[in-house]
Amino acid sequence: MKVLIVGANGKVGTILAGKLWAHSNFSPVGLIRDMRQQTKFTALGVPSVVGDLEEGVSSFLPGLDAVVFTAGSGSRTGSEKTTDVDQNAAIQLIKDCEGAGVRRFIMISAIGADPNSESTRIQHYLRAKGVADSRLRSSKLDYTIIAPGSLIDERGTGRVQVSEDLGFHGYLPREDLVECIIESLKNFNSIGKTIQVVSGGQKVKDAFIGLIGGGLPPIA
Q1: For residue 160, what are the β-bridge partners?
Q2: Catalytic site residues?
Q3: What CATH number corresponds to the domain at position 53?
Q4: In the chain, how many domains are there?
Q5: What tens digit of pLDDT does each residue of 65-89 get?
Q6: Stretch 153-171: mean pLDDT, rounded?
Q7: Is residue 137 part of a domain?
Q8: Fewer CB within 10 Å: C terminus or N terminus of the chain?
């Protein structure tokens, strides 16, 4: 499965690139914004392409089997940049995937993402993510939305708690989020699902099977 990682230079994207490259069923390609970032991906053995998500990346989509959207405006940017990247660029990528016939789309969202969020802390971010998620749900794509709790840099435990509605926020190491992304790509029963995930007591694969059932990869 040839997978484009959008936002590959971020923390989650970098971990995902290395993990997918080590997996015999996947062939990752990292989308980066600056040629200087290619050195890192060359060292990982992962091919990369340079493009600006906000300007559109449709030229990179032919021949792909899946896209993973891990891009984000970052905590140091203002609300306008959040709208540009987390909402508008994500929606444009969804449209481009529809046009190019790239059906598999994994969206990294957040617990609480909602177009009408009333969060007192990160309302604009959650609304932007919610709008993008809603567009993806109405698309023709074979999507999975993974909504983690607050991401942390601690070493992953390989154990999580998942639900379509956890009812609380929680935390999740980025390494464990990556394992959830890979499990979603492998398990076709994740298609059409929004899966909230935080640290927990079950192995990632067991947690996913318990929630959505087992399944072979859509592409071997």
Answers
A1: 199, 202
A2: 125
A3: 3.40.50.720
A4: 1
A5: 999 999 986 656 678 888 999 999 9
A6: 96
A7: yes
A8: C
Buried b (16+ CB within 10 A) or exposed e, 69-91: bbbbbeeeeeeeebbbbbbbbbb
In a domain, 220, yes or no: no
Three-state SS letters, 25-65: CCEEEEEECCHHHHHHHHHHCCCEEECCHHHCCHHHCCCCC
User: CA of 179: how far to CAs of 19, 74, 121, 166, 172, in Å?
Assistant: 8, 22, 28, 19, 11
Assigned domain for 183 exists: yes
Nearest-CA neighbor of 108 among 69, 75, 73, 78? 69
The pTM score is 0.94
For the stretch 164-200, pLDDT in tens is: 999 999 999 999 999 999 999 999 999 999 999 999 9
Residue 218 lies in a domain: no
